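In practice, a research group might receive sequence data for several interacting partners and want a quick structural hypothesis before committing to experiments. The following worked case mirrors that situation: the sequences arrive first, and a predicted assembly follows.
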Amino acid sequence: MKSSQFRERYLIIMNRSFFLFVVMGTIVLLNSMSGCRKKTVVPAEVKGCGIVVHFDHMNSDSTDFYNVGDELMFDTLIYTNGAGNSYLINEIQYFVSYVTLYKSDGFVILADKWDPVHYVDTDIPETWQWAIGDGFPAGEYDSISFTFGIPDVKNISFMFVNPPERDMFWPEYLGGGYHSMKLNGKWVEAGQTNQTTPFDFHIGRGQIYYSYPDSIIGFVPNDFEVSLLSSGFTLSDGATQGISLEMDVGKWFKEPYVFDFDEWGGNIMQNQDAMQVAKENGANVFTASLTGGDIKINIP
Amino acid sequence: MKQIGLFLFAVLLFSACNKEDETVVVQYKASNGYSNTQIKYRDADGVLVSENVNFVGGEDIWTYSFDGKKGDIVFVSARYYDSNSSITLQILLDGKIFKEATSINETDEILTISGTIPYYNE
Amino acid sequence: MQSSIGELLRGSNNISGIRKGGGAIDPVVRGFKFSELNVQIDNGLKIEGGCPNRMDPATAQIDPSEVKEIEVLKGPYALRYGTSFGGVINIKTMENPKNEKFEIHLKALLGFESNWNGNKSLLNINGGNKKVFFSISGGRKKYGNYEDGNGEVVKSHFTKQNIGGYFGFRPAKNQSIVLNYKNSTGENTRFPALPMDERLEMTHLSSLDYKAEEIGDFLQSIYVKLYNSDVNHKMDNKYRAVSDTVVAVSDIHAVNRGFRSEGAFVVNTAKFHLGIDLENILKDGQRVKTMIKQPGLPVKTEKLWNNGRIWNLGFFLTYGQRFNDMDLSASLRIDRNHAESGKISITKPHEGGADSIQSDFTNFSFSLGATYHFNENLSASLALGRGTRSPDMTERFIVLLPIGYDKFDYLGNPRLKPETNNQTDLTLKYANDKTGAFQFNVFYALVNDFIIGKRLPPAEQRPSSKGVVGVKQFVNGGNARFSGFELGWSSQEKHKLGIQVLASYTYATIDEIQKHVYETGLPIRDETILNDALPEIPPFESTIGVFYPFFKGKLKPELSVRMVAAQNHVSDAFYENTAPGFTIANFMLRYDYNKNFMVSGGVNNIFDKAYYEHLNRNVVGSKLSLYEPGRVFYLNLIFRI
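A structural hypothesis for the assembly, expressed as tokens:
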């Protein structure tokens, strides 16, 4: 075979091989698009224990014989506090944060893996339940505590941008950050029979005045710690433990200090002395009990 | 012929250029007051100014006017301490009421009205 | 009739666009977008937009009336033009005429559009002789809100002005020096799919080009370009109801300056390009929030970028040679990339602090290509490439802005690694007088260290923007895969009846991604999804165009029908919505009265169909996508002398 004929035959083979390669390559690529890599969902492995907190509200100040169990009735003038103020409750909004678990072996666990701050609103059922996390180690625990409000160093203005949390802002000129609580209602002022006066029993950053109402020279944090379940409890591996956290609204006005609306008035945001009374009473407002983990709330 | 056509086109082209007037006359007004009232407002330079105004008999009117631009923030607030007092605040843009609010017997509460001067009707 | 280059490109094969408002559609090529595309003007001028939400992508800075040609090079193969990842879009606005005698020409354009009540005008004067050449242009566009096919008004108004020109000088017959300057200003531009609107955009583009051709047998040509782009971008929420509570105004300044230089060499029959390029980006900006409902009128200032800087220096070498019926090509590129910023706190910016914010990378890219010409009609090409790109300014340094298509604030990550696209393309071309021109292309891309957003728990970072549900931080999320095809056919040129058919499809997945499963707004568990769809990938589409010239080509009607399939291959991890398919018909008529006067007009969306592109973002505050305009009549008058 002459070299030119060899070269020609070589080129023909190369051409046809290349063409074949191109066609095969096209088929391979089209096949790769056809979804031979299937979408697969792999559930996460569940480790440790979960905790769900359910928020309840009651009021031991009820004067209604038929109010069995002292369930909190809203917008109903059936309550009288230790100072003799007849009052009703419209709504309550507050923050609970940084739940801490104390293990019997001395280990302290802060539940801050996902979101350590929870907003509770008596008008929003979705907020009455809080899955504070999972992966807590099984075992014996001495107690549980939380911060009522947001800890002062974490209580930063504008950290919430969406309602409803955003609407808990505490005015900048009064210290900024967010309310610990808004407890709104009405009371019957002394000398009145049925005429009610609104009250905003609000707790947030307090002010120190050189000269009221303008010369603010300092601020006072009004978040506080609440410690519960001091008799101890057990978490079991793989299970979700429910905790029912109950607020007795009436105790805001009686233990250890009697709160008189006629004395303090309806607005305490710029009155640190009044908020101090509220803060000290607030440490006794909650009780907790253990429940089943699968608490489901009915959302209308 | 071409020159005429060119001239006409040039006229058409540049007649499309017009600039909207951005200036708006802003007036803050406080009225219907009966006592010493602290008024705070955002002035022409964007500074928050505070004035104490003593309203007598409900007929006194306090005003502040300036030339603002579309998009500017307008803000005025009032606060009184007398339990039997009141105040009405208004923001007017080119003479028309833009924002308005009244407070009656709300001692030590701050009444605020504010907004941004609208650009144009969308 | 297109109001932006993004809209112009949307008609091309496997090129889509993301609409957030009336103008400024952001192009997407084969699913690659944003910094994955190398967009440049006139062979090298690069623009850094000011808006973190990309109200002002580079393609929005040039008016379509200024465009002479747009070159789209898909894939990571074109390494001469900078780092190449998803593709290069080279927008050419300059011409280099060589008139024997001095000539001067004028072009004037008036355009009108219904539905938007849009009007535009343009005046251009150009000319020159053998020694000098020039072009000066000025134009204005004003568009109102449009109605979609349901009769709903979409707030989309914008006003844009541009002025500019270039002046060229030929010191010798084979050399030219061109000085180019453009200024464009945009005002009061609405973006219903974004939380803010553009109040003012002021852009200055300038460049100096030197070109020498036909130098010698070895060194054939030299090209040098110096450029500077300067963007001032101001946006606010003053059109939005939320500004009754908080007025937010953002002001950003972005500069991109650099150069590109290359020489072309010939050794035997092999042609080489050897070159260097530098890109230096500076970006600074802040957002001021005024709480107008609060007593005391508190003001909060947040840094969006704190003197962020990225420079990229690249060296490239390309090779091309023909062997009988085979064309071979190869490219090699090395990039050194450096990024830094002034003091910022990526994590917990509200609480102060500083993160390690400097990073340096050395990236290698290469490409190989072969085209075999079976005969004068048929050819087949194979290309292999690996393109690496370093993270951009947003991916590295952005602080809490909702820049993605989902309702999350995004957080930059200075520790991000570059992503690499390993891609192959196979192309078949066939053309002859009897069958017309046919092209079929299929591609496959494997992206390593794909940059994607990952949810951060609120304990680590809370959002800063209203209406968002949380925060995502940019991370390198493993491997992503893109594959697809493009098909095109056009009828024979000798036949008067012209027909063109285009079809394209892209399929994209990510190997592994986490999905947070929610119940009543609270996260209840995590799932790992293997081979989930990537978000924001356009569906299959096909376009058929038919035209027929009358009166020796003076009158040319054209009808096109675009058919887009439903997009059901959507991301579960991102809770992406599916999108329905649609078919749109457009008609255009062009009439050349004489060499001085031309009229064109037509109807887009003839049947006033209500539709939206899968890539259109949702209107803020709603789950509905931004709908495209309904029926639009348009008319353009062009006068030339």
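Before designing any experiment, note the following. The two ends of chain B are 42 Å apart (CA to CA). The first helix of chain B runs from residue 2 to 15.
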